[in-house]
């Protein structure tokens, strides 16, 4: 993978761009080192792409979200599995050329700031150009299966991050740590878990942000300052459970993702203080859909819009349901909606509900285990 600011982790969306340049260079040079780089890039992307074709956001140090990419498919086409991966991506691109433009608060595939983007299920001119480039340089041949074709797979990177698919569920754990920077283009690596379902899409996002500790998986208050990134991490992946250990100043946390069934994905956080524990919180970022209903076990029900929600543990109860899934909760959960994440292209927060998230938060009070599960309602 290519890391824009650090080799400790990838800049996923821009790796597509970089791989495209390497692929074009190879077409004209036949440099064996370039082909080897394309092989490694193919391996990275085929493992860290969700079943809907979008890149896994949890490991990305630049962008919280990225659409299905048309960039550099011809670079993947040197390999049988790469040709299948290119086919997989192409099948998930928007189906129609643009008929109108809308400006969205997101980068184009090339990273242009606030570039015009097509409205709805449409392709813009830039994407059409990339598809034409893919067709021009594509290398035909047989296909080989990719992870998305399999009922289950897992992959662990050389750095502490990994992904696992079991049936309709995909989970990603990231213990990536990097030196903080003031650059707006480099997000704080503070998200550690994502949960995706093939039918419902991304449910829990581990997307990173900038100067927003309220979106960090863990926070602790040390000397009047809020710390949102761990000091060290370790990842161990096994069939009986994937475990990500995170060290903070006043506690250790072990995130365990249990084997999923067709209907349920369970995970838990085991908290162990290292002495006197600082004021600390656990936060999960939820992808909620504006215009759809949100309901809790305590009887709260609302159709989501711009109106702020600040629900206490008494408002929540032991579950919340939305968009076809239910999140099972232990006592003490609090919910906040909407939270507008940082967008580096705006150098400020998002302004539209389409990229807002909710947070479910728990206060940490010493040695404890917090167990949650996402269940499909169907």
What's the architecture of the largest domain in CATH terms?
Distorted Sandwich
- Please, what is the oligomeric state? single chain
Strand residue percentage = 25-35%
Most strands sheet? 11 strands, antiparallel
The number of helical runs is 6
Content-based structural category? alpha+beta
Instruction: State the helicity in percent bands.
Output: 10-25%
Number of domains: 2
CATH class of the largest domain: Mainly Beta
Comma- or semicolon-separated keywords:
378 residues; 17% helix; Beta-galactosidase, Chain A, domain 5; alpha+beta; 9-stranded antiparallel beta sheet; 2 domains; 11-stranded antiparallel beta sheet; globular
What can you tell me about this protein's structure?
Helix content is 17%, strand content 34%. With 378 residues, the chain is an alpha+beta fold. The protein has two domains: 12-147, no CATH class; 152-376, Beta-galactosidase, Chain A, domain 5, CATH 2.70.98.10. The strands form five sheets. Strands 5, 6, 7, 8, 9, 10, 11, 16, 19, 22 and 25 form an eleven-stranded antiparallel sheet that branches. Strands 12-13-14-15-26-21-20-17-18 form a nine-stranded antiparallel sheet, with no helix packed on it. It has a two-stranded parallel sheet with strand order 1-4. Helix 1 runs antiparallel to helix 2 (32-47). It is globular.
């Amino acid at each position: 993978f290519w890391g824009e600011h650090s080799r400790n982790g990838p800049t996923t969306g821009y790796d597509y761009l970089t791989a495209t340049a390497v692929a074009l260079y190879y077409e004209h040079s036949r440099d064996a080192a370039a082909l080897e780089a394309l092989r490694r890039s193919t391996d990275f992307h085929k493992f860290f792409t969700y079943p809907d074709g979008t890149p896994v956001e949890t490991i990305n140090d630049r962008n919280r979200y990225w659409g299905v990419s048309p960039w550099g498919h011809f670079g993947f086409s040197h390999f049988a599995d790469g040709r299948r991966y290119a086919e997989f991506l192409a099948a998930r691109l928007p189906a129609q050329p643009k008929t109108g433009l809308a400006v969205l608060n997101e980068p184009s595939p090339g990273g242009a700031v606030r570039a015009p983007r097509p409205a709805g299920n449409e392709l813009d001119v830039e994407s059409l150009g990339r598809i034409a480039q893919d067709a021009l340089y594509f290398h035909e041949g047989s296909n080989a299966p990719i992870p998305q074709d399999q009922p289950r797979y897992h992959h662990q990177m050389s750095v502490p991050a990994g992904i696992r698919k079991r049936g309709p569920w995909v989970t990603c754990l990231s213990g990536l740590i990097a030196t903080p920077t003031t650059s707006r283009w480099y997000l704080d690596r503070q998200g550690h878990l994502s949960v995706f379902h093939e039918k419902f899409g991304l449910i829990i996002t581990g997307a990173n942000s900038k100067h927003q500790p309220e979106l960090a998986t863990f926070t602790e208050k040390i000397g009047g300052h809020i710390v949102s990134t761990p000091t060290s991490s370790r990842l161990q992946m096994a069939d009986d459970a994937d475990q990500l250990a995170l060290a903070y100043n006043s506690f250790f946390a072990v995130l365990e993702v249990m084997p999923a069934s067709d209907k349920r994905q369970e995970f838990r956080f085991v908290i162990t203080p290292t002495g006197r524990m600082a004021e600390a919180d656990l936060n999960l970022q939820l992808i909620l859909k504006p215009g759809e209903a949100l309901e809790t076990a305590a009887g709260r029900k609302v159709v989501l819009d711009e109106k702020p929600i600040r629900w206490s543990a008494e408002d929540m109860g032991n579950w919340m349901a939305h968009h076809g899934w239910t999140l099972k909760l232990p006592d003490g959960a609090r919910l906040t909606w909407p939270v507008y994440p940082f967008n580096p292209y705006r150098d400020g927060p998002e302004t539209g509900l389409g990229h807002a998230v909710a947070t479910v938060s728990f206060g940490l009070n010493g040695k404890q285990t917090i167990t949650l599960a996402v269940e499909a309602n169907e």
